[in-house]
């Protein structure tokens, strides 16, 4: 299929599955920030009151499995069943203040810990009786399905995203930027001479699949800083040993998405001190949230509209792939569709910070 026909195909797909009545909005009743963000988002995306699911849960970021099941998964399942929304809902929007990650036993690729978001994505299958193994990741049935619309029951998952930032004002600004998104600006692809060659290959492929006139790709050891009109960004974050600045100094356009290959950049959504930066593991006084690695929420703080991240170690093969996310987003897919096209495993570590219905529209 030619690039032109592929773009037209995606544009047609984008007309489907992006209305507010296909979103379940999840709010933590006990968290003021969660309620404020839910109240702000709901009318702006015309989400019916019946599609708001209120939880009675903690605001702690990390919770055990029994609490996840009792206070998050089971109540969300009840909301979907009670409102006859199980099939109609395609997207789940979690608000800031809903727990972020589930602690669990094991290590490596058999680890039981996961992001709440990635675990909830499998709820559709669970409601239809699908058994889910807690240990390790579960293959994402929508991964790499570039030419197919997302629909049930063909793809037995929900597309989960998180409306979150360092504070309520930043989360509201992110929602506003999503509503103002237009398909303009450049996609910045920054390879690292210290990065894994598979990851660099995905970055190069992303650049090839985007219009050449809209791409800035750099394969030198330097790090790109202080660029304007950025609509998409993919790089190695703090895993690039040449990255010295916490802020890239970019001018992010409304709708801009940032992604990086970093193991724990969504380990917390708490705001670090203004003078915090990533100086390496040896600088113990500069660890934040137990790590020296960069933070996905920093990109929202700096003006991006969406960012991908990982709550625990996903390994490179478990990270979101820019060669799927960025071309799909450019071609008209919603933000959530684009992300889930790019993520190989569920019940794993990935999260998407952003408005699941966000899209760029026509170039």
Descriptive overview:
With 363 residues, the chain is α/β, with parallel strands linked by helices. It folds into two domains: 3-162, no CATH class; 169-326, no CATH class. Helix content is 28%, strand content 17%. The chain contains ten helices and 15 strands. It has helices at 3-14, 32-44, 65-82, 116-120, 123-127, 168-179, 197-209, 297-301, 322-330, 335-342, and strands at residues 23-28, 52-55, 62-63, 91-95, 101-102, 114-115, 138-139, 159-163, 186-190, 215-218, 230-235, 252-260, 306-310, 345-346, 350-353. A six-stranded mixed β-sheet has the order 10-9-11-12-13-15. Strands 2-1-4-8 form a four-stranded parallel β-sheet, sandwiched between helices. The chain is globular and about 55 Å long.
């Amino acid at each position: 299929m030619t690039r032109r026909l592929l773009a037209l195909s995606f544009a047609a797909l984008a007309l489907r599955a992006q209305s507010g009545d296909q979103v379940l909005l999840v709010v933590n009743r006990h968290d003021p920030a969660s309620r404020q963000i839910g109240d702000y988002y709901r009318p702006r995306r015309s989400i019916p009151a019946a599609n708001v699911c209120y939880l009675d849960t903690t605001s702690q970021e990390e919770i055990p499995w029994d609490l996840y099941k009792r206070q998050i998964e089971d109540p969300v399942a009840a909301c979907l069943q009670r409102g006859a929304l199980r099939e109609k809902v395609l997207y789940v929007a979690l608000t800031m203040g809903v727990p972020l990650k589930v602690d669990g036993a094991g290590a490596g690729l058999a680890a039981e810990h996961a992001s709440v978001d990635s675990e909830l994505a499998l709820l559709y299958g669970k409601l239809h009786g699908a058994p889910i193994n807690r240990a390790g990741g579960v293959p994402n049935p929508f991964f790499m399905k570039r030419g197919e619309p997302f629909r049930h029951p063909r793809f037995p998952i929900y597309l989960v995203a998180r409306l979150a930032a360092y504070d309520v004002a930043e989360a509201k600004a992110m929602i506003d930027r999503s509503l103002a998104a237009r398909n303009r600006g450049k996609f910045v692809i920054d390879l690292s001479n210290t990065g894994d060659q598979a990851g660099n290959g995905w970055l190069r492929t992303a650049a090839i699949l985007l219009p050449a006139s809209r791409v800035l790709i750099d394969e030198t050891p330097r790090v790109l800083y202080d660029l304007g009109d950025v609509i998409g960004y993919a790089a190695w974050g703090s895993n690039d040993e040449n990255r010295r600045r916490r802020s890239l100094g970019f001018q992010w356009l409304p709708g801009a998405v940032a992604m990086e290959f970093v193991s724990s950049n969504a380990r917390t959504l708490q705001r670090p001190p203004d003078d915090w930066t990533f100086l390496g593991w040896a600088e113990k006084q500069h660890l934040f949230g137990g790590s020296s690695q960069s933070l996905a929420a920093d990109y929202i703080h700096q003006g991006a509209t969406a960012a991908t991240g990982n709550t625990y170690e996903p390994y490179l093969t478990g990270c979101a792939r820019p060669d799927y996310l960025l071309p799909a987003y450019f071609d008209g897919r919603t933000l959530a569709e684009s992300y889930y096209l790019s993520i190989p495993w569920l019940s794993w570590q990935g999260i998407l910070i952003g408005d699941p219905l966000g899209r760029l529209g026509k170039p």
